[in-house]
Structures are given as C-alpha cells and as structure tokens.
Amino acid sequence: MLFVQKFGGSSVANAERIRNVAGIIAEKFLEGNEVVVVLSAQGDTTDELLEKAAEINPDPSKRELDMLLTTGEQQSIALMAMCLEGMGLPVVSLTGWQVGLRTDASYGAARIRRVDTERLRRELDKKRIVLVAGFQGVNKFDDYTTLGRGGSDTTAVALAAALHADRCQIFTDVEGVYTADPRKVPGARKLEEITYDEMLELASMGAQVLMNRSVQLARRYGVELEVLSSLVRAPGTKVKEVSKNMEEMKITGIAKDEKVARVTVVQVADRPGSAFRVLNAVSRAGINVDMIIQANGRDGANDMSFVVAETDAEAACRALEERQAAIGFDHISVDKDIAKISVVGAGMMSSVGIASLVFEALNDEHINIQMINTSEIKISCVIDAASADRAVAAIHRKFFEQ
Amino acid sequence: MLFVQKFGGSSVANAERIRNVAGIIAEKFLEGNEVVVVLSAQGDTTDELLEKAAEINPDPSKRELDMLLTTGEQQSIALMAMCLEGMGLPVVSLTGWQVGLRTDASYGAARIRRVDTERLRRELDKKRIVLVAGFQGVNKFDDYTTLGRGGSDTTAVALAAALHADRCQIFTDVEGVYTADPRKVPGARKLEEITYDEMLELASMGAQVLMNRSVQLARRYGVELEVLSSLVRAPGTKVKEVSKNMEEMKITGIAKDEKVARVTVVQVADRPGSAFRVLNAVSRAGINVDMIIQANGRDGANDMSFVVAETDAEAACRALEERQAAIGFDHISVDKDIAKISVVGAGMMSSVGIASLVFEALNDEHINIQMINTSEIKISCVIDAASADRAVAAIHRKFFEQ
Predict the structure, then answer these.
(1) Number of domains, chain A
(2) Looking at the domain assignment, is residue B167 inside a domain?
(3) According to the model, what pLDDT value does residue B351 have?
(4) Contact indicator for A139, A103 with CB cutoff of 8 Å
C-alpha cells in the first residue's frame, strides 16, 4: 500500500516530537508500505521568520516572503530525515521544487497546477521513505511559491492524488472527527467514516480539523483521507465519497460557529431590486453572505438580515452605508452576540423529519431560533450565543444519546 | 561595469547590518553599475542549525546536512531583498539552483562544475540587483550541495568568472591585505594591490583574509578581486595577475602561522628510500607536509624533521608508528611550540638578497632559525613560538620602516 502522511508544525516542533513522528513513519514503512511524508515548518518557525522580515520591511513583496518562508519546511524535512537515518532507515528529503510541485504565479497563495511524480516514483522504487516539504512549490518562472493557509494539507492531498496513493493520512492534535466538540459535549463520539460533503460542511461550520481546500481536492481526485492523532495511536476518521454510515445514521455531526455576526438593514425601501442591491453591495466588497431573511415591516419597508463572518461585519456596514442613497434604508444594526448551530449529515437526503427533531430539541430547551437555513445535507440555525453550548448538547442527545 | 559583491555572515547578522550592506549595494547600483551580490547565512544561523541537527542525529548524512544548511543563505537573500525593496530598488533573490550553479556530487564540500548564466543575465537585463545565495549549488541528481569552507567567496568568484564581471569585491571585517597583521605590527600598511600568487602564499601562511580556493579560481579565470571592509568605506586591496608594486617593493607582506607542529623522526635508518618511505607514510594518511630537513646523525642514521598543521601531528605520528618496522627508526618527537614566519613577494623573483635581509633581521633579535624553506615568491622560517611576534616586527622594520 502507498500512504501519504502529513504532520503539522506542532507535531515536529522539537527533537522529542520529531522522534515521536519518526516512530509513526517507521512503523508504517516497516509494515511493508511505501510512505511519502509531508511536513510543515517547525512550531513557531514561520512566525519567527515573519518577525525578522517585519523588522526589515513591514511590507515586503510576496515573492521574497515566499523565498524566506519556504526555508521553514526545508529545515523540517532535513531534520526528520536525519532522525530516520539515525534509526537506520532509508530516507530522502525533497523540496517542492525537487518533487515537481508546479503552481501558478500567485505568490503567497499559489494554486497547484500539477505534480511531476518522476522523482517521487524513482525514490519510492529505491525503497526509501520520501519526505516532502509541504506548503511550497515552484511556478513557471522557477520561483518559489507558497500555497497559503492549509497549504501542507493541500500538498499531501495533491501528492496522494498524483501518486494514486491508497490513503492520505492527516495527523493533527485531535483523534478524528466527532459528532460534536468532545471538549463541550461529553457524549460526543468519534466518527469512523464521513463523506467529503459532510466534512466540507462541518469544516466551514467551524470544526477546524481540515481546511476545505484540501477536502475539495481530495473529493475531486477521489483521495481517501484519514484524520488522526499524532499523539494517540488509534484509528482516526476516514473521509471518503460514500460513508458506510449514510443509511444507518441520520446525521453525522453537530458544529457550532460563534465567529459570526448578524447584520440587519432596517427599513429597506420596498421596491423591485432592493434585496439585490443590498447583497450586491456586500458581495462587491468581497464579503461572503451566509443566511438571509427578509421580514415584513411597517410603512412599505422591510427589514433584511444576513449573517457574515464576525471579522467582516464592519466592512459590510461600510459597504452598505456608502450606497445608502441608492439602496434606500433607514439604518444598519449589527449583532455579534449570536451563534450558528449546524447539523450535518449526508443521510438527510434520504430521510425526513431531521429538521423537526432539531427544532424539537431547541424547543425543549426554550431556545429561540432567529434564522434557519437548510441544504441537502445541512440544517443551520442562528440562536443567541449564550445558548450555543446548551443547544449543541440538546441536539446531540436527541440524535445520538437515545 | 558589472560588479559581483560578496558579504559574509557577520555583515548580515541582524537588521541593522543588513541595512548597512543594502546601502553599499544601493550605492554601487545607483552609480549605474550592474550588481550581483552573494550572501552568506546570517551570523550564527549555520551553527544553530548544526546544533539542531546534532540534537537529533550526531552523525547525519552530508546530503541531509546540506538540505538543512542551504536554508541559511536562502533566508539571507530574502531578507536583503526585502530591505532593498523597502528602499524602492528593483531586486530579485536567487538560490543556488535558480542561478544554475551546478556542482559535483560531493555533499558538504562540492566543487563547482559550471554556472548557467541565463537566468542571471535575464534578471540583470531587467535592471535588477541580483542577490544570490552563497555556499550552495545543485548536483546532477538535482540535490542541494554546499561548497564547504569559504564557499560563499568561491560562489562570488565563480559568478564573476561566468559573467565576465569587471570586479569581484569580497567584503570582510578588515580593510584589505596588510604588509603584516595590523593588530600586532603598528607600522603595518594596507596594500593597494597584490598578485594572486602573493595572496595565495599569504593566505596559506595564516593571513585568513581569503580562502586559497577562491583565489585560485580567480587566478584561473582572471577575475580581478578586491578585498575591502563592509564597515569602513575605503578602497581595499586589489588582487590581480600583475601588481604594480612588483618592481617597486621587494616584498609584499609578512605572515605568521602558529598552528603548525614539527615532527622529528629520530634515527631513521640510513639506507636508500628511507626519506621516501617516511614521507609516503604521512601523505598516504592524507596529511600535507610543508618543510623538510634531514640532519646527519650518529651510527649511520639521520634525524628527519618536517612541518605539518598542528591538528595533523597526532595522525602523522600514528601513520609512521604503524610502519616503524618497514621504515626503520628509533622514535618520534613532536614540537608544537613553534611558529612559521613567511615573507612573501612576487618581487623576489627579480631581486636578490631578500633572504639575507630576513636572516639579518632575525639575527639582530637573537632569534634562532630552526628550518628554512624558499620558493620563487616566499621565504619561510620556523622559529620558536615565543619569538614569533618579535620576529614579524623585526622583519617588517627591515623592509617597510627604514
């Protein structure tokens, strides 16, 4: 079997952790598997490099920032290679350039164009463990580029796709994907399997286990992912096209996102195109709008509310106020004291009554639902922030603990 | 004019020093020159990386060490590029791979095979300052290699040769090459010019301004070198084929090397080939022998003495003792309490009486000469270590201060 394993910065932060990870890699290799390992920069390395840069130039070019930052992952792979050498194992480390990871020219947040697997295959054929610097590639100018947030996960998935790996294991500091946040919901269960779509919904809902970008890439190329812990030796959660839970379990997980805000545009003029003008003003400012409701108001005007990321709330207000005359509204109010609870499950598609169970759970707890949004595999409710943990626990009991 | 400038690790050790060096680069560029700059890793970076490696594996492969160490220079060029960007100057940084510096496969101490100047020329044609990571290249396997000690100087000379640069400026913490160590000899004078051969003799004699390797490379390709200070803005010393001092000044400089040892093989059997067998045993152990004398002894046996680097003395003894029976000698004695004083000057070739002036100077100070060696441009004397500084001062007075 061919495995791609990915370890993040905290997993290789010091000599002791490097040794721990080397043990995981060695185990997989000594079982007779081919192993390709993607590593991030050690612990605080990237932040330290950014500080050094800021001291010299507060606004450096992204090209030179990438030139600086790519050294972090290169150091990680060299150190890990030395550790595996010390255990007597055959190993070789390769940078983004050496591994043929070609990107577009967007320094700082490059997209992967292709992976030339020739060198990778040659090293695997020599029965070596191959360590690859994550987060980095080279563009058509032969310049170094970085892949932006979640870049090392994306590297791992891209290599797994290019090599047709049997599985891409993403090692993190959690043991897998849970039905709810296990620190908050004592009855939360680790899921054995989950679909790409469910993972995408959970990730975008604030369950920060995997970045959406790498899950999307995995879905596109059919790469089977596994999320597992680098500290606890236990099977994690597999992310794949069809999960065997689909028919059995109505929902997969419950996520909570408190970093949201509700923006209410009060007394929008009741004329054709008002809603379009409101949303257009916001989206032109580059802000994603999530849920939208329009409430009937007095005097031929409606209130219109939508949900944005908390960090985008001010920008959304500014964008609207700049066009107040053209749109026609009285004023804007912002409520950051809300939370979005999302119930996710591919099983919803072939089942009914999920929504009413969710509402029943919230009703039992006397929690008021401010906004509702549904998709084929998700139901989201906006409630007041103070009730969020209680809401998750109530829904979890309704679906998983009866 | 096309200049290649090289700055060592201490010249770029922190933000302040990077700014200082950026000023030197900017000045040369704004005068209308093409400028290629070679940088070493910042201050202690290399040592810190070696420490990290040692913590994980005390004996890592040279390939992975090179993978680790090459990140140091890459960080330097990125930071310097950011600094020059901040000054509004056009600049691009390039690693050894990007600059097409191809080496042989000897990790840790690779030799340069060739430099593909295509990318360099393209960037220079765009009127950019080009920053190049020193000390590093890539071999035929597309693996990173380092050039060993003095590697960044060698990178600079190699780029200057490949680009047919008008001058290669090596910036150091001294202002140039002096007639003697200015910290020890108050009357020491900075030389305006010096020949490659003189520089080579001085360097090998312990005047650690330039590594021999880079001077040899410069001589082979006729690259005009200049050694100058990164802290004091003043002309340095030019190193070239023919110096204008050749006819005027009989000698160029006086160097002292205290890191030498005299090995004496006592009572070597007086039969044909004994001297060969002694020297062969030592050279087979990879040890360079410098000066050799044979003294007539008693009983049909001679004492034979030679000078080696202090660090090689023990190995030389072991090599000889292993073959004691075959060679035939009584025992070996080692004296580390010696110094080698060398008087260097291309003018010696066309002049007479230099040697007698040197001997006169030492005689005036009642310093005993243990061994003597001469070449076309050098006279070396071995004396006791305690008299070394006094000897240099006396010779300096005789040639430069009368």
Answers:
(1) 1
(2) yes
(3) 60
(4) yes
Q: For residue B386, what pLDDT is reported? A: 95
Q: Write out chain A residues lying below 8 Å of B142, CB-based.
A: 98, 119
- Looking at the DSSP bridge assignments, the partners of residue A225 are A168, A239
Give contacts of B59 with chain A, Cβ < 8 Å. Answer: 86
What tokens appear for A253 in the block? Answer: 């997980």
Is A178 part of a structural domain of the chain? no
* Cα separation values, B143 from A31, A97, A163, B39, B62, Å: 28, 10, 21, 20, 11
**Cα(B200)–Cα(B193) distance, rounded to whole angstroms?**
14
Pick from A15, A19, A78: CB nearest B67: A78
Q: 3-state DSSP helix/strand/coil percent for chain B, to nearest 5? A: 40, 25, 35
Distance from CA of B108 to the nearest CA of A (A): 14
What percent of chain B shows pLDDT beyond 70? 95
Q: pLDDT confidence of A298, banded at 50, 70, 90?
A: low
pLDDT in tens, A193-227: 999 988 888 876 655 678 788 999 999 999 999 99
Q: Is the whole-model pTM more than 0.90? A: no
Q: Is residue B37 part of a domain?
A: yes
Domain assignment of residue A17, given as a range: 2-172
CATH number of the domain where residue A69 is located: 3.40.1160.10
Q: Strand A193-195's sheet: what is its strand order?
A: A91-94, A129-133, A34-39, A2-7, A167-172, A225-229, A237-240, A193-195
Q: What's the pLDDT tens digit per position in B290-342?
A: 888 877 655 667 888 899 999 999 999 999 999 999 888 999 999 999 999 99
Closest CA in chain A for residue B18: A56
Cβ contact, residue pair A56, B18, below 8 Å: yes
With respect to residue A36, please indicate whether it lies within any of the assigned structural domains.
Answer: yes
Residue pointed to by tokens 């812990």: A229
Q: How many helices (H) and strands (E) does chain B have?
A: 12, 20
Please report, rounded to a whole number, the percentage of residues in chain A having pLDDT higher than 90. 63
Q: Which of the residues A82, A83, A116 would you substitute to probe the B interface, choosing the one with the greatest number of B C-beta atoms within 10 Å? A: A82
